[in-house]
C-alpha cells in the first residue's frame, strides 16, 4: 500500500467561520486503492474538511492536490470532474424512475429526449458487475431496499468517473447483514484501484475495513497511522485525547412500577394509506426502558408519529396515565408529559435558521421562566440554553449561532438536552445516538438510564442491536407493524432478535436456535 501513488493531498487546510477555526492546519494524504478512515469527535471538523474536497466550501488557506496537481475545487461540478464523488447519507433518488434513469439524471448532456438509456443501462450493468454491486439497472428506485439504494448512490459516483469516493456515515441506515455487504463492496472498490475516505464513528467498522486512519481533534489533524494492530480502545483514546470507557453502560436491574403509557390495539396507516402499524398493544412502565427493535421501515416511524400526534391513528387508543390522548394535537401531547427525541432531527427536531438558544426553548418558550406575562425573556432563554449547553457538552461557539451551523452530532445533543430537561413522564428516544461519537453515546445512554431511575418510562427505538441490548430492560421486536416477540434484554441474543426482526414468532425463533 505504501508504494501506491498518492492521489489526494490536503495541505495545511484552514477553514475559518468568522472568528472560529473549524479546520486548523489539517493535513491528509490518501493513496490509490486505500480505505482511509477519518476519525474525530462530533464537531471535530470532518464534514467541513470533506465539504472543501467536494466543492461546497472553499478553504481559507491551504492547498488541495489531486494526483500531485494543485487544484481549486470551487464547485461540486469541478469536484466531479476531478474524480471526487460523495456517497450521501440521505439518498437522493426519485422513486418513480428506474435505477438507470436516476444515475444518468443530471450527469449526461440531454438533447431533448435523446438520452441513450439502452447504452446507459448496459454501462451501468457492467459497472455493477465490475465492482460487485449486484444492482438491477431496470428496477424502480421506489421498489428497492435501503441497502440497494445506497449501492445506486455508489454506482452514480462511479458512472461519473469518480476515483476518490467519500462515504459519510454509510452504515447508519443499514441492517447488520447490509453492513457486511457494504464492507465487501468497499474492499472490492479498493481492490479495483478506487480510493475511499470513510467518515464513521463506529470503531469496529474502521477496524474491519480501513487501511489507514487520520485523527482530527478540535479542528487539527493530530495523527495518521495504519489501522492494523491498533485496538478499538486505542482508537477511541486517540480520538478523544484521554482514556474513554468503551464498556457497557452501568445500570442496576430495572424496578418497573405503574404503567405510564399504553397502546391498545393501535392501527396506523402511512402516508400512502398502507397499514404500517397493525393492532399493536404495549405497556410502558415507570422505571423501565422498553426497547423497540426492528429493521428500518417496519412501522416504527408511524408508531412514534401516532403517539406524538403528528399523524392520525386509524383505530385503537393511546392512553397516558389512564387518560386517552389519541389524536390530540402535538402540543397537547407534549404538555401532557411526552418528550420526543425524533429520528429525523431536521424535519422535526430543529429550526435550523433559528439560534441554538431559541431551539432549546422551542417546547417551553411560552411559559415561565422563559416568558413573563406573555413576553419572551431573551436573557432567561439564553441563560437556560447556556446551562444546558454546558450540562450536555454541546460543542458550539455560543448559544447565539444558528442551529444549522452546529455539527450533526452537536445538533443531536442539543435536541436531547431540550427534551430530557422537560421532566416528561414518557420519553420517546428514536435513534438517539445516530451519528454520535463514542463519548457522546456513552453519555446519552447514561442519561436515558438516569431518566429510567428517576421513574420515567422510556421508549427506545433503535436499529442498533448493541444499543438496544445495552440500554433496554425489555425489548419488543417489530416486524411489518406487528410485535413478533417481547423478551428481557438479559435473556436474549442478537441472533434471536434478528430472527424476530425477520418476522418469526418467539417460539419459531427459539426452536430454530435450539436446532442449530
Ligand atoms: N457554516 C458554519 N458556520 C459556523 N460554524 C460552522 C459552520 N459549519 C460548521 N461549523 C462549525 O465547525 C465545527 C466543525 O463542524 P463539522 O460539521 O465539520 O464537524 P464533524 O467533525 O463533521 O462533526 P459530526 O461528527 O458531529 O458530524 C463545529 O463546531 C461547527 O459548529
Descriptive overview:
The protein has helices at 46-53, 76-81, 99-104, 117-130, 146-159, 176-191, 203-209, 232-240, 300-307, 330-337, 345-349, 356-360, 378-391, 408-420, 438-453, 465-471, 494-501, 506-515, and strands at residues 6-17, 20-31, 35-40, 61-66, 69-71, 84-87, 164-168, 195-199, 212-217, 220-226, 259-269, 275-285, 288-293, 315-320, 323-324, 338-341, 371-372, 375-376, 426-430, 457-462, 474-479, 482-488. It has 516 residues and is of the alpha/beta class. The chain has two domains: 6-240, P-loop containing nucleotide triphosphate hydrolases (Rossmann fold, 3-Layer(aba) Sandwich), CATH 3.40.50; 259-349 and 425-515, 3-Layer(aba) Sandwich (Rossmann fold), CATH 3.40.50.300. Strands 6-7-8-3-9-10 form a six-stranded mixed sheet, with helices on both faces. A six-stranded mixed sheet has the order 16-19-20-13-21-22. A four-stranded antiparallel sheet has the order 2-1-4-5, with helices on one face. Strand 7, helix 6 and strand 8 (195-199) form a beta-alpha-beta unit. Helix 14 (408-420) runs parallel beside helix 15 and helix 17 (494-501) packs across helix 18. The longest helix is centred in the middle third of the chain and has 16 residues, at 176-191. The mean pLDDT is 91. Adenosine-5'-triphosphate binds at residues 17, 20, 22, 40, 42-48, 395-396, 405-410. It comes from Weissella bombi.
Mean pLDDT: 91
What small molecules accompany the polymer chains? adenosine-5'-triphosphate
State which percent range the strand residues make up.
25-35%
What topology, given as strand order, has the largest sheet?
6-7-8-3-9-10
Q: So, CATH architecture of the largest domain?
A: 3-Layer(aba) Sandwich
| Count of structural domains | 2
Quote the distance from N terminus to C terminus: 41 Å
Q: Which term fits the overall shape?
A: globular
Assign a percent range to the helix content: 25-40%
Pfam family, one: ABC_tran
Subcellular location: Cell membrane
Main location: membrane
Protein name: Simple sugar transport system ATP-binding protein
Amino acid at each position: 500500500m505504501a508504494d501506491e501513488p498518492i492521489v489526494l493531498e490536503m495541505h495545511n487546510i484552514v477553514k475559518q467561520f468568522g472568528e472560529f477555526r473549524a479546520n486548523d492546519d489539517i493535513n491528509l494524504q490518501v493513496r490509490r486503492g486505500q480505505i482511509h478512515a477519518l476519525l474525530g469527535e462530533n464537531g471535530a471538523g470532518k464534514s467541513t474538511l470533506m465539504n472543501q474536497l467536494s466543492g461546497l466550501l472553499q478553504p481559507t488557506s491551504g492547498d488541495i492536490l489531486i494526483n500531485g496537481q494543485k487544484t481549486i475545487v470551487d464547485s461540486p461540478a469541478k469536484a466531479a470532474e476531478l474524480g471526487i464523488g460523495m456517497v450521501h447519507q440521505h439518498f437522493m433518488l426519485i422513486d418513480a424512475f428506474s435505477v438507470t434513469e436516476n444515475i444518468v439524471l443530471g450527469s449526461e448532456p440531454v438533447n431533448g429526449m435523446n438520452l441513450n438509456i439502452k447504452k446507459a443501462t448496459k454501462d451501468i450493468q457492467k459497472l455493477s458487475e465490475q465492482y460487485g454491486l449486484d444492482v438491477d439497472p431496470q428496477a424502480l428506485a421506489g421498489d428497492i431496499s435501503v441497502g440497494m439504494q445506497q449501492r445506486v448512490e455508489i454506482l452514480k459516483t462511479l458512472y461519473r468517473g469518480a476515483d476518490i469516493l467519500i462515504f459519510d456515515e454509510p452504515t447508519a441506515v443499514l441492517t447488520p447483514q447490509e453492513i457486511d455487504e457494504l464492507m465487501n463492496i468497499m474492499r472490492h472498490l479498493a481492490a479495483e484501484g478506487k480510493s475511499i475516505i470513510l467518515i464513521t464513528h463506529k470503531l469496529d467498522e474502521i477496524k474491519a475495513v480501513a487501511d489507514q486512519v487520520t485523527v482530527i481533534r478540535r479542528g487539527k489533524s493530530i495523527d495518521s497511522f495504519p489501522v492494523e494492530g491498533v485496538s478499538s480502545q486505542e482508537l477511541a483514546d486517540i480520538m478523544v485525547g484521554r482514556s474513554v470507557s468503551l464498556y457497557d453502560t452501568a445500570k442496576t436491574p430495572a424496578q418497573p412500577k405503574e404503567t405510564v403509557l399504553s397502546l391498545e390495539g393501535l392501527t396506523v396507516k402511512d402516508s400512502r394509506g398502507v397499514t404500517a402499524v397493525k393492532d399493536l398493544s404495549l405497556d410502558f412502565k415507570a422505571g423501565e426502558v422498553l426497547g423497540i427493535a426492528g429493521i428500518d421501515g417496519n412501522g416504527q416511524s408511524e408508531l412514534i408519529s401516532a403517539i406524538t400526534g403528528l399523524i392520525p391513528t386509524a383505530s385503537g387508543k393511546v392512553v397516558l396515565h389512564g387518560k386517552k390522548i389519541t389524536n390530540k394535537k402535538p402540543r397537547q401531547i407534549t404538555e401532557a408529559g411526552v418528550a420526543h427525541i425524533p429520528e429525523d432531527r431536521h424535519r422535526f427536531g430543529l429550526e435550523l435558521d433559528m439560534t441554538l438558544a431559541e431551539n432549546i426553548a422551542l417546547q417551553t418558550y411560552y411559559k415561565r421562566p422563559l416568558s413573563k406575562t406573555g413576553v419572551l425573556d431573551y436573557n432567561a432563554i439564553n441563560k437556560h440554553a447556556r446551562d444546558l449547553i454546558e450540562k450536555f457538552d454541546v460543542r458550539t461557539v455560543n448559544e447565539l449561532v444558528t442551529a444549522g451551523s452546529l455539527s450533526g452530532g452537536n445538533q443531536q445533543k442539543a435536541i436531547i438536552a431540550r427534551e430530557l430537561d422537560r421532566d416528561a413522564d414518557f420519553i420517546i428516544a428514536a435513534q438517539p445516538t445516530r451519528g454520535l461519537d463514542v463519548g457522546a453515546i456513552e453519555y446519552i445512554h447514561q442519561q436515558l438510564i438516569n431518566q429510567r431511575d428517576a421513574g420515567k418510562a422510556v421508549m427506545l427505538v433503535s436499529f442498533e442491536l448493541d444499543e438496544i441490548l445495552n440500554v433496554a430492560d425489555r425489548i419488543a421486536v417489530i416486524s411489518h407493524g406487528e410485535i413478533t416477540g417481547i423478551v428481557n434484554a438479559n435473556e436474549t441474543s442478537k441472533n434471536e432478535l434478528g430472527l424476530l426482526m425477520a418476522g418469526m414468532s418467539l417460539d419459531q425463533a427459539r426452536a430454530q436456535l435450539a436446532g442449530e
